Amino acid sequence: MLLSGLLWSLSFPGWLVNGETPWTGWLGWVALVPALGALEGATPGEGALAGWIGGWAGWASVLTWVLAIQELEVFRIPAWLAFAAILGGFWGGFGWLVARTGAGRALVMTPAAWTILEWGRGWLFTGFAWVPLGSSQLEGRPEVYMAARVIGILGVSLMVAMMNAAIWSFWRRPPDRVRAALVGATALLVCLALGRVGMRDAERGMQGARPLRVGLLQGAFTESEKWSLPAEVMVARYEALAREAARQGATIMVWPETATASVLNRDPVQLDRIVRLARRSGSLQLVGALEEDEMTGTLHNGITAVTGLGPVAVYRKVHLVPFGEYVPGWFRRWAPFARKLTAGLVDLTPAPALLPLRIPGGPIVAGVVCYEIVFAGLVQSLAGAGAEVIVNVTNDAWYGHSPATWQHALGVRARAVETGLWVVRCANTGASMVVDPLGRPRRTLDLFVPGVQVETVGARAISTPAVRWGALPVLAIAFALLAWVCRTGAA
Question: Taking burial as the number of CB atoms within 10 A of a residue's CB, which of 87, 229, 303, 347 is the most buried?
Answer without folding.
Answer: 303
